[in-house]
Amino acid sequence: MYIVAIQFHGKIDLYKPEPGLDNDTGGQIIYVLQACEELARQNHQVTIVTRLLDESNQYSVKAQERNNVKLVRLEMQSNKYRRKEDLWPYVWEFTDSCVNYFIENNKYPDLIIGNYADAGAVALLLNRMLKIPFIFIPHSLGRTKLRNLLRNIDSNGDELEKQYHFSTRIYYEEQLFRYATSVVVSSEHEKFNQCTMYKNFSSNKINVVAPGIEVPSIIVRSSIQTKRKPIILVARLSHTKNLVAPIDVLAQSEWLRANTEIILATTNGKVTDESRSIRVAIEERCAMYPDFVRFYQFDSQEEIFQLFISAREAGGIYFNPSLIEPFGLTTLEAASYGLPVVLTDNGGTTDIIHNVNIGYLVNVYNENDMIQKISSILNDDNTEVWNLFSNNGLHNVLNYYSWYRWVKNIESICTSDQPPVERYVLPKTLSNDAMVIIIEFDGNLATRDPIPLCSFKTFIEQYTVNLCLVYSTDMGLEESLQIVQESALPCPNVFICYSGDEIYSYNSSEKKYMIMKKWKSLIKQNSTHFFDITNQSQFTQCTDKNSSKCITYDDYSDYDSNLKLFPVPADVTKRLVIRWLLSCLSIPLNRCIICCDLNNGMNASCGAIKHVMVNNNDLPTDKLDAFDGVYFCKQKFAAGLIEGIKFFL
């Protein structure tokens, strides 16, 4: 099976992965790399597709291969690095880059895996365009993160929206739950306590597949010397990791201050306002409790593994106090070296304790519970408990959390009742450097002015050998053909009728237009095509920080116009159809020109396709921005089409 794994943000590398570099490079980077390597070991062809970044490091290398896994970095109009929360406006453009990659290589995947919501959105669009099955792996979910931030940070919904763009993320996540072939989560908790917050939750579609882990057999000890039993915290400097408050809680215990010490470790990463403020707070605690709290930044994962071994030999524990932990890869790494754990009870950690019994769960909002559990496991009177958890970690974790088992589960999901992908391919009549010109027929050519129409026909006939002409119309085939014949227009190779619902191509042997595809109508009154926003949630800020219910969605009642929502392109169906058509023609998207009326075409200005905008209705253009790949015509109707097409040809 040919599998493409989408990783949108670009900070992934086969040889020098940097987990913890920033919020985009957490445990999901290790998850994707190790999962893809195991897929390749089990004879699947695997390609990781990500963004090319304009940096003088490994992220600017266009292609890599290691252990039979390929990694391809695709260029966009801007290769500047953007954090994942700021990638939403570029989803269509990156999707176009993926389609181009498939067309140029004349190879389409049997399965797409979208990791995290941004890459999931790309996988969703590829599925709607090319009908390729896809698996969505959330890693974390927007509703859960929003709820926890509202509970624990002094910010309101507007401030969080500005920073994280939750409305867009949650919007796409709803569609992913609706259209994904399968949603794969790591734990029962993630399925039944997080995914259920979404309107489109379907228990049958969501599969719990525990990931594997891989850790090196390290014998080197850490250079960090411990004076007392260590409590190890390892995490990125992020609010959701909840690193500061537990220090203040544990410092309340005289026994813990006298017998233990907190060692907080993170990897060197990108400095942000968020990480800077957390670092300052941690350093303040180090000054307040110099014999109780220490803070280290490491350059590599290996140094953290060494710390785990040294902490085990000193009789310590690993502590994860996150507000929410979707799974807990670092937890399993620590436990695999024999370090007992104390974990937040909010997340996939509950599954880990149930499956391999390596420690305790705590309520991070209950100070007494936190102090009591940690004190209990570290008390010299309870060495049999510490030994039990340590031995369970050493002997059970790697056996239970296996990438081999993960692959077998993914294979069973993909082979169960999945019909083969239908690939419609038109006869190869065009050269590789052919152009596809798609013209919005209504209003541009469906006129009765004979002079410019005659000029347009003469103009188009110059390029008939190396040109595919497509008319896009809201009308049916018969009505469109009648106008073409009456106006003596050039006959197109393809008609896109009824706004994309029906596609016809000209069959030269039959000398008539034959149906290529009938799309199920995605347009419904008072909705925005296949993206349903009539049932969006309404965010409610939590007033009680100890409440477990911080977001309501009012049974998905009528759409609230005051809610900030991601604007869905009005022409989304046509966009999908056009990209499907180009894949059938085996013509790259940058060899396509779409000609449309300015009044209807502004939303189309995205991705790799060139656009000609004809201002037939004398709309004001003085405030229009210049877009790469978009030409604004000075003339109208057919004359404007000739002007714009000439510009690109």
TrEMBL record:
Enumerate the Pfam families for this protein.
Glycos_transf_1, GT-B_Sucrose_synth, S6PP
Name by which UniProt lists this protein = sucrose-phosphate synthase
From what superkingdom does this record's organism come? Eukaryota
Q: Which InterPro entries match?
A: EF_Hand_1_Ca_BS (IPR018247), Glyco_trans_1 (IPR001296), HAD_sf (IPR023214), SPP-like_dom (IPR006380), SPS (IPR044161), Sucrose_synth_GT-B1 (IPR000368)
Q: Where is the Glycosyl transferase family domain?
A: 221-383
Summarizing the function annotation, the protein's role is:
Plays a role in photosynthetic sucrose synthesis by catalyzing the rate-limiting step of sucrose biosynthesis from UDP-glucose and fructose- 6-phosphate. Involved in the regulation of carbon partitioning in the leaves of plants. May regulate the synthesis of sucrose and therefore play a major role as a limiting factor in the export of photoassimilates out of the leaf. Plays a role for sucrose availability that is essential for plant growth and fiber elongation.
Keyword Transferase assigned to the entry: answer is yes
- Native organism is Adineta ricciae
Q: Which UniProt keywords apply?
A: Glycosyltransferase, Transferase
Taxonomic lineage per UniProt?
Eukaryota, Metazoa, Spiralia, Gnathifera, Rotifera
